[in-house]
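Render this sequence as a predicted structure.
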Amino acid sequence: GSGGNLSPNQSFFEGWYLRLTFPPPPPLTKTSQQKQQQQQQQQQRSRQPQQPSSLAFIFHVFDPHLPLSAKRGVGMQIASSPPLSSSSSSSRSLPELIVVSDEDVSRFRADSHNLDVMNEFGAREDGDYFHLTATRCRGRASLSGSTTNTGSDDNNPTIVEFDFGIRPEIGWGGEISRDTEGRDAAAARQYSTAGWLAAFPLFDPHYQVLMSKGVVPRGYLRSSCGAEYNLDDCVVYLEKNWGRSFPSKWFWMQCNVFPRMP
């Protein structure tokens, strides 16, 4: 949720980080028929944009309750890791970083108790937006016409659209079980990532793992530059940060995929 910790005169931000890790390629096989199939698949992949090893989606809002704040704004970032292939980069590959931001926070919406955040950038019906819930993430990012953009120019803008479902499996404390409408059903108890230390204002900003593992049952990401990725079976990691300030630099490490426990 969002908005439950707003203080009338204090700066406040909240951000959500979602990472997709692509499943590993199938192991090599030895039969002649399977080798031929693999060669055909390799030839097909060579004509397609190179797939990254992971994608990250970051959504944030700063000081939505302080009209005169210099930090006030809402934004979306899409970060792409280097392609899995070691060959030269393809012109159809997704830019490594896409940033869309706006000082206007009047269209930002967030549920105070459940994970449901969204924002529309601009008044156009086909404009940029994002909408994140516990069971779905979708949006559109146009690099031309945004307040801030990286990875394109106005003469050759890149438009990225994404839509993928999320099947939560493990939160922070145990397995998550949900019914067909996305509601909790006999889920294991979840815990604060920092434990009782989260109650102290000294540890700012705060940090919470919302989903240590989820799976994309079906989804896609496509761009006007020709890059299109099938997101089916990607592994999902989701966290949030909130507080008065955010560090300018930090170190972050994660490992959530193991050979025997994908």
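Summary. The longest helix spans residues 32-46. The chain has a mean pLDDT of 78.
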